[in-house]
Amino acid sequence: MNRDNLLSVRNLTVAFGDHAVIRDLSFDIPSGDTLAIIGPNGSGKTVLLKALLHLVPYEGVILWPSHVRLGYVPQKISADRQIPLLVRDLLEAKAHYLKLPRGNIQDVADQVGMTTELMETSIGIVSGGQFQKLLIAMALLGKPTVLLFDEPTASLDELEEERIYELVENLKTQWGLTILLVSHDLSVVHRSANLVLCLSKGAPCIGTPDKILTQDVLTAAYAAPQQYYMHRDSHREPQS
Ligand SMILES: Nc1ncnc2c1ncn2[C@@H]1O[C@H](COP(=O)(O)OP(=O)(O)OP(=O)(O)O)[C@@H](O)[C@H]1O
Questions:
Q1: Which atom of ligand 1 is the closest one to the Cα of 43?
Q2: Boundaries of each ABC transporter domain copy (predicted)?
C-alpha cells in the first residue's frame, strides 16, 4: 500500500450467487479525503460500503491500516421504531456493546448537538434529522478515524439536509476524519467530496468531482442525462 493511502482496494468482486454486483474494482483513498460514491439504483453502493466493513463476503483485497477505526452510519436500521426505547437507551446499548464508559455518551451527544430533551425522547417520535443525528452519534461512540455514511440525508428536507452536512463537515475538521459517503445528491457531492467513485453497469471510474461529474460520464453511468445544482450563497446554479 502507498504510504499516503488509508485504504487500498484491489480487484474487488462481490457476488450474490451468480450475480456479480461489483466486479474487479480497484481504487485508493488517501487519508483525510472525502470520497463520494455515486451511481444509479442497484449499482452496488451499499454493497461496496458493506464489503469495506467486511459485512459481506468478497474476493480481492481490501487493505485498511491496522490502527484504523471504522464508524458506519447506515441508511436505516431495521428495528421497529415503535418499540419503547429512548434515544439515550440506544446510545447506552451501543456504549455497553463497545464496553465504553457512560461518559462517552454525553461526549458524542454534545458533538452532534443532541439536547437532553432529545436524549429523553422516544425513538418512535423523533424527526428524520434527529434520528440521523442519533445514528451519527452511535457511529462516533467508537472514536472512528473513518466514517462511512450510507445516504445520510435520504428522506430529509433541504434544511435538515444542510444541517447534517454541516455537522459532517465540522466533525471531519475537528476529528481529522476520512469520509466515505454514498449520495444521490450530486450538488452535495460536488461541494463536499474531493474524490468521486462512480459505479455503473459499465466500467466504474474514480477521480476529482470536476472529472467525474461531467455530462458524458454521468450520462454513461446513469444511461440518462443528469443535472444538479451547485449551492452558491443564496442562489442555485444549474450544472451539466
Ligand atoms: N444480501 C444480498 N443478497 C442478494 N443480493 C443483494 C444483497 N444485498 C444487495 N443485493 C443486490 O445487490 C445489488 C446492489 O444493491 P445495493 O443496495 O448495493 O445498491 P445501491 O447502489 O446502494 O442502490 P440504491 O441507490 O437503490 O440504494 C442489488 O441488485 C441488490 O438486490
A1: 21
A2: 7-226
Compute the distance from residue 238 Cα to the ligand 1 centre, in Å.
30
Closest residue CA from atom 29 of ligand 1 = 42
Taking the model in full, what pTM does it have?
0.87
Domain 1-68+145-159+178-240: which CATH number of 3.40.30.10, 3.40.50.720, 2.60.120.10, 3.40.50.300: 3.40.50.300
Distance 44 CA to ligand 1 centre (A): 5
Each residue's pLDDT tens digit in the chain (240 positions)? 454 789 999 999 999 999 999 999 999 999 999 999 999 988 999 999 999 999 999 999 999 999 999 999 987 776 666 778 899 999 999 999 999 988 889 989 988 888 999 999 998 888 888 888 899 999 999 899 999 999 867 667 777 788 888 888 888 998 899 999 998 888 888 888 999 999 986 688 999 999 999 988 888 888 766 666 555 443 444 454
- Which of 12, 13, 14, 16 has the most ligand 1 atoms within 8 A of CB, as the residue to mutate? 16
Sign (positive or negative) of CA dihedral 162, 69, 142, 75: positive
Atom 13, ligand 1: which residue's CA is nearest? 42
CB 50 less than 6 A from any atom of ligand 1: no
> Domain residues of the chain, as ranges?
1-68+145-159+178-240, 79-144
What's the CA dihedral at 140, 141, 146, 151 to 10 degrees? -50
On the CB side of 226, CA atoms within 13 Å amount to 21
